[in-house]
Amino acid sequence: MEKEDFWLDLYMDYLSEQDEIKNPEKYMANDPELDKLTEETMIKIRNAALRKLAQKKQSSFVDILKKNYENALSIVEGLLNNENFKIEDYIKKEKIALSYKNFDELSHAEIKDILINHIVLKLETEKKDNNNNANNESRSSS
After folding, report:
1. If you ran DSSP here, which 8-state letter would residue 99 be given?
2. What is the CA radius of gyration of the chain?
3. 37, 31 Cβ separation under 8 angstroms
4. Where are the domains of the chain?
5. What residues have CB less than 8 Å from 38, skipping those under 6 apart?
């Protein structure tokens, strides 16, 4: 199907759905406000397309978050399974800001949550930094 046929079919379908329009072909031939109707229709089509793009973008964003969470979870499990791992040392090394310093009172689940949140944010920041560096390099080479 050609692009023009697609838009024509979409427009005719829209006209057919309108209760007050019984014969779309005759209506288009005799309507003095056709330009207004066409403009309104195109606005509706554009808005539908924008909604679809937004849904697609949101879906891909959620997929990225899930992937980062899964990566963080595997990293954290690796850290916690290491018998030499100490949360205090890791927090100092990664320069994580926490509002308390008594790590002995933290449960295993709390430590795991802190580490997962930190690593997810770290992965997202690294990805943004990599994207920014790639954009800067492409601009400077142009």
Report:
1. S
2. 28
3. yes
4. 60-141
5. 11
Residue 7's contacts (CB-CB under 8 Å, 6 or more residues apart) are: 45
68's CB contacts (< 8 A; 6+ apart) are 120, 123, 124
Please state at what angle helix 3-17 crosses helix 34-81, rounded to 10 degrees.
Answer: 110
C-alpha to C-alpha distance for 89 and 95, rounded to whole angstroms: 10
Tell me what percent of the chain is helix, strand and coil, each rounded to the nearest 5: 80, 0, 20
User: For the segment 64-100, what is each residue's pLDDT rounded down to a tens digit?
Assistant: 889 999 999 999 999 999 989 888 888 888 888 777 6
> Cα–Cα distance between 10 and 13 in angstroms, integer?
5
d(CA 29, CA 31): 6
